[in-house]
Amino acid sequence: MNNFTYDISTVVHFGKGQIEKLGAEVAKRSGRVLMVYGGGSVKRNGVYDGAAAQLKAHGVAWVELSGVEPNPRINTVREGVRLCREEKLDGVLALGGGSVIDCAKGIAAGALYDGDPWDFPAGKAAPEQALPIFTVLTMAATGSEMDSIAVISNMDSHEKEAFSAPCCLPAVSILDPAYTCSLPASQTAAGTADIMSHTLENYFSPIETNYLADNMAEAILRACVHYGPKAIDTPDDYEARANLMWCASWAINGFLSMGKPVGWSVHRMEHELSAFYDVTHGVGLAILTPNWMRYVLSEQTEARFARYGEAVWDLDRSLPQREKAEAAIQKTRDFFSALGLPATLTEVGIDGTHFAEMARKARTANFDRTFVPLSTEDILEIYKMSL
Amino acid sequence: MNNFTYDISTVVHFGKGQIEKLGAEVAKRSGRVLMVYGGGSVKRNGVYDGAAAQLKAHGVAWVELSGVEPNPRINTVREGVRLCREEKLDGVLALGGGSVIDCAKGIAAGALYDGDPWDFPAGKAAPEQALPIFTVLTMAATGSEMDSIAVISNMDSHEKEAFSAPCCLPAVSILDPAYTCSLPASQTAAGTADIMSHTLENYFSPIETNYLADNMAEAILRACVHYGPKAIDTPDDYEARANLMWCASWAINGFLSMGKPVGWSVHRMEHELSAFYDVTHGVGLAILTPNWMRYVLSEQTEARFARYGEAVWDLDRSLPQREKAEAAIQKTRDFFSALGLPATLTEVGIDGTHFAEMARKARTANFDRTFVPLSTEDILEIYKMSL
Question: What are phi and psi of B2, to 5 degrees?
Fold first, then answer.
């Protein structure tokens, strides 16, 4: 097991009605916050009213920034930074899913940074301090509620880039699975694919010496296979929603990658899809993941895929290893399809026009620590397989 | 899933040589600490020298309290409190295993409390504040390095009691598995049994709705079965030591009990063994656990034991449920024996003299949330089965 540091200090209040703890938690750390949200859904599902009542009850003032986009834009981050400075705010409260929370992270760090916040995703600067971040989660998917990562897009330059810094870890997150019971099937499906993709990125690593991390990854994947379809068939199945939500946080909060190198190959490739075409992150991942698996399957990697097949898809242990590995990949593809997710880029209106540029941009990330190192040509090939 | 709060803010530096991070971490929070340790082992295995060098290098002064007992005594806690006050110390650094860390927790809370620290284990007062606690772990067993629990003994009154408070969660723990490579087989075996017992106490709960917690528990148990014998056969097997150490922390840091009621039946019974006879905690647990399992096995509980048998002991799924449950219990007993642990109280010199009083004292704890509620007579019967 490689050395690592565990430091996940986010306080999570998990369960029905836990928003009642929000006001006291915010008031301990902030007096005037920027309340960040997306479209109108938080006004329909009670999250906005609940949060506003909590802030009022605990004497916390706030200013609002609404309209955060799926795949949040740097211009929205800049607007939030301006508001924090002008209104002298000392905290950021995100109401929403991963996009809203990522945007809040950019704002919280940008407010205490002298330059342009695009410097963070562009890799020109690392956030060293941030305003306290609070979240009320409305979707189980990105895990942003319990990690220090943010992904921000710049549509002018077709760039979608991530940054991560300890100061961007939320101080407090309210995880009430009941808020997700009103999500449409398409979002539940994309969220489930997102959770599984995060887990798979951690699971397929060049070394396997952290027994708990590997077994926890398999447990998260089995949970998604078990509860994802339940949540789609019966949207108000609380147990299904609760288990998906807790899995989402643990798929990417760092536990799965401790003690081993992790590469995030498929995410790097997917970010280019979103940057050029603004597709839903989970949909892009569901299309690319099985093709990435097929492409990297080899005599060297088939044992790991076979183990994945046994542990997650309950494949017969007596099958020959290669057959088991191939069956596991097909099961993955079939599962995403059963959730109603598209299987090809063509289905979501993407053709090969920009593949060469996308592959080149994706390859600017470090692919050296990945499960199987990929060249620009390899990435191009995986895009083509996904048409 | 029941509501819960996740708040595990201990910073863990895990791996070879991580003691090099100790000085800076302590200096951030404290200027003069009480260094607490047991016998001479920390002077032989390099922990004492490493910690002392770190404190010196970062300008942290210290006072020492050595000789902490296995099953730490309240008198030692009182002595530590006296030192903290007289020497105006502002932190407590524990070098050792669970006993030393538990003692440090009592001292850290007692130093900021007006009354006698026995009030905490006696349930007369709950710690509301404590000096910052730092640990350098030398044994994988109790998980005290990442939880807020302490168990303190009062040999005068034959009492061994636990207390728990958020302020007693260590601020920083150094987990270097290499320190455990010199442990004798008997301690490695007792530690492995302790980790498994913590996990089983969480696993056998009246409700099963937290998929991750249940699967993580099974993973920890499998890891113990896999790595425990390896660590005994090849004491310097770093991967085995590392996996056991990480499992120990996660068996009891709260993750396994989130969202469900947990009762700790066997621990309550074992505490009376230690209080009356000062047996090693892990040894007492290894003797009692299979007998508790046999006693609570019924038509109502056999499904859970059968699942345990499949997931942990790889039992044939096609076996009849009751048979599978019984086989799982026998596997548990056989495993502890294979580790070299005693199977009966008689082997450790305990007869039935005090059973009635022990059962009565054990039953003063709350047994209502346990997997199967137990009366004083039930507990007495389990003690008798263990002779």
Answer: -70, 160
